[in-house]
Amino acid sequence: MRAYVGPGTTTGRWLGLVTAVWVQCISGNNYTFSNYSDAIKNLMGLTQLQLNNLSVAKDVGKAFGLLAGLASDRVPTSILLLIGSVEGLIGYGAQWLVVRETIAPPPYWQMCVYLCLGGNSTTWMNTAVLVTCIRNFRQNRGPVSGLLKGFVGLSTAIFTDLCSALFADDPAKFLLMLAIVPFAVCCTAMLFLRESPPSVSPSPAAKEDDETETKYFNIINAFAVVVAVYLLSFDMTGEHGQLLSRAFSIVLIILLALPVAIPIYIWFKEAISRANRAPELDLQVRIEEPLLIEKENEEGTEKAVIIPEGDEKRQPSIGEEHTIFEALRTVDFWILFVSFLCGVGTGLAVMNNMAHMGLAVGYDDVSIFVSLTSIWGFFGRIASGSISEYFLKKSATPRAIWNAASQILMAMGYIVMAIAPPGSLYIGSIVVGLCYGVRLSITVPMASELFGLKSYGLIYNMIILNLPLGSFLFSGLLAGYLYDAHATKSASGANTCIGAHCYRLVFVIMAIACVVGFGLDLILAFRTKKLYRRIHSSKVKKALQQPIKC
After folding, report:
1. Which helix (H) or strand (E) holds 496?
2. Residue 279 predicted with pLDDT over 70
3. What is the mean pLDDT of residues 472-497?
4. Beta strands 488-489; 495-496: pairing state
5. Is pTM beyond 0.85 here?
6. If you compute the radius of gyration of the chain from its CA atoms, what whole number of angstroms results?
7. Would the pLDDT of 336 be above 90?
8. How many CB atoms sit inside 10 A of residue 544's CB?
9. Tell me, what DSSP letter sits at residue 399?
10. Going by fewer Cβ within 10 Å, which terminus of the chain is more open, N or C?
11. Residues in domain NFD4 C-terminal (predicted)?
């Protein structure tokens, strides 16, 4: 147990969370491929299979997120953000030069490298944000995950709508935004986002109960919902004039900046509190052990971590700290891994192919569907984090239950898209976005609860390997081959397919995959119900304890 002496870190934690939210607002650029994929396809004269393999290269970049996971326990958060922002600047900057026709289209393999760099950049940003904030707010992992992942979901709509408002959906200018904006935001976040050791001081400035944290989370969630509704209203109101579009952009930036009011309020509150009491030093203790083996002493003034004695090496139980190799030896990890593949892999296939799914059923402009997927992905992420936390505290409901519900709903969405009634792409965009968001948001805290926080950065990125794997299987192979089988050559040399039949079999196969994922999630829920009963008991005990009055 290492002790730190210094002032309370409440303001710093919340300022870090707000800057983390800003990073997440720009780190979903990996989901925007449909906004510029058609320009790349026509410039390079690609078939749909070749284009889909470019999107796979983008997602393969996430496989190298294991490097970010390894680095997360060894280097400061600011270095993780710096690496990610520079990679994005290079990867998307090079694509901008190609689409703008400043340089000639590069060889296919070189374009794959550019997309891979852009894809990998987000893993450094996401790892920096998630690992730091989950550790800073370890008693509220569900709300933290839902909030941060929710803003990742919104980021696609933020980029898409800003580009539509300011640059009339110009793909070159869109790519320039993807290169420059994340770099600028990450440079800002480097100054404020850092891990703060939990405080055990009884002083009001350092001790913050769950009720207060929940209040602040609810405020930021309310800001997020306002942003989502604002974006949705812009998307659903048709064409906008230049003046209105610029006004929309200014108001959107103001809305995204508003959460900074929370750490400012906390700072003033702490300043007044310090002025009204005698000077004192606050002791802060970094706790490396998992949630379930914390034990409060009889006085309730501090938490002591119980460390098993002896030299005997044993496989840890679910809920205890795992190294990456110990996690890989558990059945639960692989059930979680494969079920995650069924959900996010199929969802990525829709996002990567949205442009051509829209063209196939008669839509020339698919930006509305990209935005709908993003916005409803936000609602899925932010709602599932808070709802799963509520039912965990109330009735010990395993988080995997919510993953199972999202899988079966996603399967129904794919069936609707396969049948292709009028408006099916609107329904599909909403359902896929919502369920994809639930899947991502639930899995983040669940992995930390099953395998602990010690190697969380690496375990999280191991699970995220499903993104390139799912993209390759469902987008690169399945959707690419089946689309090209029905397509004909266009004047530019690219393949084109028109009609609902182009993706019908793809949707049916992805629906079956989701049913398999549903079954695996039910198995995981059954296997982890004892763990969640223990977490529930721990939270109930903590809630019943009275705070110390100074």
Report:
1. strand 495-496
2. no
3. 79
4. antiparallel
5. no
6. 23
7. yes
8. 7
9. T
10. C
11. 320-532
For residue 378, the model assigns a pLDDT of 83
Of the two residues 507 and 440, the one the predictor is more confident about is: 507
- φ, ψ at 291 (rounded to 5°): -60, -35
Q: Mind listing the pLDDT tens digit for each residue in 460-479?
A: 888 888 888 888 889 878 88
Q: What is the DSSP letter of 302?
A: S
- Please report which residue ranges of 365-500 form alpha helices under DSSP H: 367-395, 400-419, 424-451, 456-463, 466-470, 480-486
Distance between CA atoms of residues 159 and 56, nearest Å? 21
Count CB-CB contacts under 10 A for residue 242. Answer: 10
Residue found under tokens 């953000």: 81
Return d(Cα 443, Cα 380) in angstroms, integer. 13
What is the pLDDT at residue 313? 66
Place of tokens 């199929």: 346
Q: Which residues contact 475 (CB under 8 A, 6 or more apart)?
A: 52, 55, 56, 59, 348, 349, 352, 353
3-state secondary structure of 46: coil
Region label for 318, one of left (φ > 0), alpha (ψ between -120 and 50) or beta (otherwise)? beta
As a whole number of angstroms, the distance between CA 371 and CA 32 comes to: 9
Q: Which residues contact 168 (CB under 8 A, 6 or more apart)?
A: none
Ramachandran bin of 86, using left for φ above 0, alpha for ψ from -120 to 50, beta for the remaining angles: alpha
In this structure, what token pair is assigned to residue 15?
């300022």
Token readout for 53 is 């393999």
pLDDT at 231: 86
pLDDT > 90 fraction of the chain, expressed in percent and rounded: 24
What mean pLDDT, rounded, does the chain reach? 81
253 alpha carbon, distance to own chain's centre: 21
Tell me the pLDDT tens digit for each residue of 261-270.
Answer: 999 988 888 7
Q: Which residues of 351-385 are buried (b: 16+ CB within 10 A; e: fewer)?
A: bbbbbbbbbbbebeebbbbbbbbbbbbbbbbbbbb
pLDDT digits over 166-183, tens only? Answer: 877 788 888 998 899 999
Cα–Cα dist 429/7, whole Å: 48
The tens digit of pLDDT for each residue in 100-154 reads: 988 888 999 999 999 999 888 988 998 888 888 888 887 777 778 778 877 887 8
Element (H, E) at 312: none
Q: What is the pLDDT of residue 549?
A: 45
**Contact between 117 and 61 (Cβ < 8 Å):** yes
Burial 18-39 (b: 16+ CB within 10 A, else e): bbbbbbbbbbbbbbbbbbbbbb
Rounded to whole angstroms, the Cα distance separating 64 from 473 reads 18
Degrees, nearest 5: CA angle 239-242-247: 100
Q: How far apart are CA 79 and CA 26, in angstroms?
A: 18
